[in-house]
Amino acid sequence: MTTAQEREQISRVNASGRTPVVFVHGLWLLPSSWDRWATVFDEAGFASLTPGWPDDPDTVAEAHAHPEVFAGKSVGQVADHFADVIGRLERKPLVVGHSFGGLITQMLAGRGLAAASVAIDPAPFRGVLPLPFSSLRAASAVLGNPANYHRAVPLTYEQFRYAFANAVSEQEARELYERFAVPAPGEPLFQAAVANINPWSEVKVDTLTPERGPLLIISGEKDHTVPWAIAHASYRKQARNEHAVTEIHEMPGRGHALTIDSGWREVAGTALAFLTRFTR
């Protein structure tokens, strides 16, 4: 079910007549993490929407006050929620997602719901096999305790520093943690961890559909959570699509926080340039 805020965004975008851009955040972030991106895309002539995952609070303060609202969200539920938002748009949107949002972006594209899409440091889907040690360490905050499957799990600063902010200064890492980090549902990480041994997994992408549209995968060179091995394996699966452009771009010196840290504008510009090629 869409929220009142999401319905307002949908109405505004439909009334604008512009090409919509739907932004999909990942774990441990909120829709507000896209606010600066939305401004850039709006100024470029698009119409931005920043829907939340089901039950997302509006602010970081609310998220810390009521962390329980994040619990019990599956990958399938989140993908269906964004599909519902897109189904209310009058024009097929561009879709941009980060981390698990990058996975959701590819799921939506695989359903034929995106005119073109950008997946930034995307979480792996069924069939993506590399499992680097750094990814296991980054996920251990959740996967280390099976009870976290049904819980909302916050990151300590040290965990955030390793998983997100390893490529920035100590001062910036602490600022990012205070400004953006919120609890996240444990379920998606458990789903991703067993996707390759669960034939009924929700964590799957139709990579071959003719309706997928152009896709760019962006990878941060120093990302611990979704390192190049995972991003490139996702690209190789997607590149088998004979009907649409598939590209990959590595951002030098960047970690998993590349969408929110001080270098966010370069990443936004890379995504914007790709999407503009297919909408103008």
Automatic annotation (TrEMBL):
<dbReference type="InterPro" id="IPR000073">
    <property type="entry name" value="AB_hydrolase_1"/>
</dbReference>
<dbReference type="InterPro" id="IPR029058">
    <property type="entry name" value="AB_hydrolase_fold"/>
</dbReference>
<dbReference type="Pfam" id="PF12697">
    <property type="entry name" value="Abhydrolase_6"/>
</dbReference>
<feature type="domain" description="AB hydrolase-1">
    <location>
        <begin position="21"/>
        <end position="268"/>
    </location>
</feature>
<dbReference type="GO" id="GO:0016787">
    <property type="term" value="F:hydrolase activity"/>
</dbReference>
<keyword id="KW-0378">Hydrolase</keyword>
<dbReference type="InterPro" id="IPR050228">
    <property type="entry name" value="Carboxylesterase_BioH"/>
</dbReference>
<protein>
    <submittedName>
        <fullName>Alpha/beta fold hydrolase</fullName>
    </submittedName>
</protein>
